[in-house]
Specification:
The chain is mostly helical. The chain is 78% helix and 0% strand. It is built from 20 helices and no strands. α2 runs antiparallel to α9.
Length: 417
Amino acid sequence: MGVDKAATGQFVSVGLLGAAAFIVTADVRVVNPLLQIIANEYHTDVGSTGIIATAYAIPYGLFQLVYGPLGDRIGKLKVMSMTLALFAVGTTACAFAPDLFLLTLLRLLTGVFAAATIPMSLAYIGDTFPYNQRQAAIGKFVGAVALGNILSTSLGGIVGDFLNWHLIFLFYGLISIGVFLLLWRTVSRQPSPTPKANTSGSQWFAFLKPYGSLLFKPATRLIILAVFIEGAFFFGGFTFLGAFLKAQYNLLYVVIGFMLGGFGLGSLIYSRSVKWLVQRFGETGLIMGGGWLVCLCFFGIALLEYWPLFIPLNILMGLGYYMIHSTLQTKATEMSPGARGTAVSLFAFSLFLGQGIGVAALGPIVDGPGYVPAFLLTGLGMGLLAIWTVWQIRRHAPPPNKVVNVGEAQSATILSE
């Protein structure tokens, strides 16, 4: 596929990276359908039990900023393999947590270690695949993430109605141990990267300096701001879809779990058709089409009061979301070719920051005017984001006949089709 194996040592396949991303993605939202059951076992209420989700999400977002520079310094796959081992231990331990406090602590630590897998994988793909092949490679990687999304919601619904919730953590932990062993076998054969000089001395926050350099670039600011807005609008609305289905139609949790899994099916469709989509629509076409497809799906869910329609709309929403998100991801891998780990980590941090703010902002709308206004606002926001992003990309694109040097060409690539 045009991969420079000599530059990276023993080549790690996208399939193996996808296996790691699959298990981490499945673990991210595994507790969401199980909150009531866990609350009952620990004799507390759902609101208090929700701390286990918060404890996971906050370090998962924050530590994106740490792993980027660390991966650029000592090696992306080395960081990924070490953290995956600790993730496996933490996830397995969650199965044996005797009380809510210890489960919360273990989920916090698991979130810290889980944060490295996806950004380090994307950065490694960016280092390994030339840009004209990178979208297809990331699309294949996204397929594994999509399967993780399907499993997390669907299996969570099954466990919620039929099995013991402890088993799901034991299952994920054992699988992640196996993936770690396969990854470490390859990583141990690779030559160690040449350490980068530490010019920051003993300054405590020196690791933040590369992020300041990245944000100085207009192209980087565009992508980081776009994914922040995307996270705020999309996940601000998507987070409440399960509660909406329960409140509006009083469906069983297992049914809700499988219905929400349709989003992952849509992203899987994207991963299988990404080559055709890129050739047919180009990057700006994917952004515009994906944003407005998500918009129409949220509108349909809000206004069409017939729950079976949620299934195809959610599948199409998964397709539309990854049309825009995967394109932004691909551009993020080119924001700083010499420090892709840092660039992709900044991208992921901005996404999770937007998600947290979006959920907090839409919560009062859901509790006040209701789900319908919240979903309409979410859909409209995604559509307008697509228009703004495409306008910015075209506005900064270089003139067709302009001669640029290599550095300028790399900056232009991120802002043009």
